[in-house]
């Protein structure tokens, strides 16, 4: 019995010693860090899966004095980059020296234009968002509408048609079985956010974000692919483009991997698009003059193009681009980007060297909300992105352009979906706040891609 107690005491002492040494890891490298509890570290700072709180606190504390600051996710050391020049170097010039762990899909970015074309094509023939709102208004006789619910249905239907030639009909059948199951997985809440973080810190990061959706969709998608191959079917959708790439030797991915990549694209595009559309409508409802400017531009350009959508038409909508960019700045779907050093990495013009395997965060939201980069950073001001306002700004301060420089195809699909939705709505309706409108938009602490949790009710009035 005495031996057992000695063994337990020795094991516990060893664990405490390991944790204490681990929690001074950044001090030993000469990198600033917050004081940590000798046993629990930063545990009580881990409040959300997207780490908004702890990253923002580090950025605000050390951005003026340090190039990099350190923190810990449980016992895992994490470096948070605070200098824009270092961020740019890591993301671009030294890109090959890091594994980019927040890249959602391996589908080549060169296919972005094809996906955008498919989305625009399906938008012409699919159920229109504005039409769904009209039905809602007629049924309820109430001008205050939950736009979030309708945007969810529209986005899923459009992605299903463009990617798979599958019409989920959720916009016309809001209680459809597939939509309910899909949203259950998107809005799933583990019993503890700290447990969710722990599981993902000690396995390949963020793969678990997609596992539930993959398990739901993979059997259906493999069945679709096999049926196409057996019957030599070639529908005009993005899945056919990927299969054609493989058949012509440009890709060697097995069927299951292609199916997973399409699911990744569907899920990440859905979450980011829904978030940006809802946030844009909310901000436009609060800022009536900006909404009028955008509505006038959309109606003028669409009238000149016979109300036909195309990539060229999207290029003409300058103010629409600014509105989307400003919405992404205020409400970035990705709070941070995660890299892993593939070898020891010396930070240029410093004495700091990061070890191989170190996890590095690029604090996207903190940069985009920095008042020294964006004056009145908490205000919705699309005009700030006019070219003459951008002169003299650091080239990486536009992280809101894509939120992730290595997710080109996801970014392209999101830009197209958001543009289609806003064009369809603002051609026919104007939006304003109502009694049920939220004071602010709340986001789930369980999603890595930030996703609104509260209903977004707005007054809707036909133009």
UniProtKB/TrEMBL annotation:
Molecular function via GO: heme binding; iron ion binding; monooxygenase activity; oxidoreductase activity, acting on paired donors, with incorporation or reduction of molecular oxygen
GO CC term (a single one): endoplasmic reticulum membrane
Stretches of the chain forming a coiled coil according to its record: none
Taxonomy, superkingdom: Eukaryota
Necessary cofactors: heme
SUPFAM superfamilies to which the protein is assigned, alphabetical: Cytochrome P450 (SSF48264)
Protein name as catalogued: Probable cytochrome P450 6a14
Species, as recorded: Glossina fuscipes
């Amino acid at each position: 019995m005495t031996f057992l107690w000695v063994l337990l005491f020795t094991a516990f002492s060893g664990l405490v010693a390991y944790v204490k040494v681990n929690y001074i890891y950044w001090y030993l490298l000469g990198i600033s860090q917050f004081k940590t509890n000798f046993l629990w570290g930063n545990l009580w700072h881990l409040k959300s899966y997207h780490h908004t709180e702890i990253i923002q606190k580090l950025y605000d504390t050390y951005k003026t004095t340090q190039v990099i600051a350190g923190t810990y996710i449980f016992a895992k050391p994490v470096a948070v980059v605070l200098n824009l020049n270092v961020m740019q170097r890591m993301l671009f010039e030294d890109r090959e020296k890091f594994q980019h762990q927040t890249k959602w899909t391996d589908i080549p970015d060169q296919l972005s234009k094809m996906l955008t074309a498919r989305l625009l094509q399906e938008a012409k023939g699919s159920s229109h968002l504005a039409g769904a709102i009209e039905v809602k208004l007629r049924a309820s006789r109430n001008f205050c509408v939950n736009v979030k619910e309708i945007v969810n249905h529209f986005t899923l239907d459009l992605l299903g048609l463009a990617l798979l030639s599958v019409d989920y009909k959720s916009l016309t059948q809001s209680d459809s079985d597939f939509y309910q199951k899909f949203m259950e997985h998107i809005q799933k809440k583990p019993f503890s956010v700290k447990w969710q973080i722990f599981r993902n810190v000690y396995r390949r990061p963020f793969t678990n974000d997609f596992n539930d959706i993959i398990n739901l969709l993979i059997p259906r998608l493999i069945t679709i692919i096999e049926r196409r191959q057996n019957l030599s079917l070639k529908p005009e959708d993005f899945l056919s483009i990927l299969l054609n790439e493989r058949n012509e030797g440009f890709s060697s991915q097995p069927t299951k991997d292609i199916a997973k990549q399409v699911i990744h694209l569907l899920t990440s595009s859905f979450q980011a698009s829904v978030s940006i559309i809802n946030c844009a409508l909310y901000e436009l409802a609060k800022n009536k003059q900006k909404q009028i400017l955008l509505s006038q531009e959309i109606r003028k350009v669409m009238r000149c193009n016979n109300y036909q959508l195309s990539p060229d038409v999207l290029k003409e909508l300058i103010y629409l681009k600014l509105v989307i960019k400003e919405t992404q700045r205020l409400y970035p779907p990705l709070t941070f980007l995660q890299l892993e050093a593939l070898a020891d990495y010396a930070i240029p013009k410093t004495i700091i060297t990061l070890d191989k395997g170190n996890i590095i965060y690029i604090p996207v939201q903190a940069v985009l909300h920095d008042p020294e980069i964006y004056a009145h950073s908490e205000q919705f001001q699309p005009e700030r992105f006019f070219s003459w306002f951008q002169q003299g700004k650091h080239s990486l301060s536009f992280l809101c352009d894509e939120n992730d420089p290595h997710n080109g195809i996801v970014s392209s699909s999101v830009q197209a979906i958001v543009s289609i939705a806003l064009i369809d709505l603002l051609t026919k309706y104007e939006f304003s706040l109502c009694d049920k409108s939220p004071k602010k938009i709340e986001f789930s602490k369980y999603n890595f891609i930030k996703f609104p949790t509260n209903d977004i009710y707005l007054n809707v009035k036909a133009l």
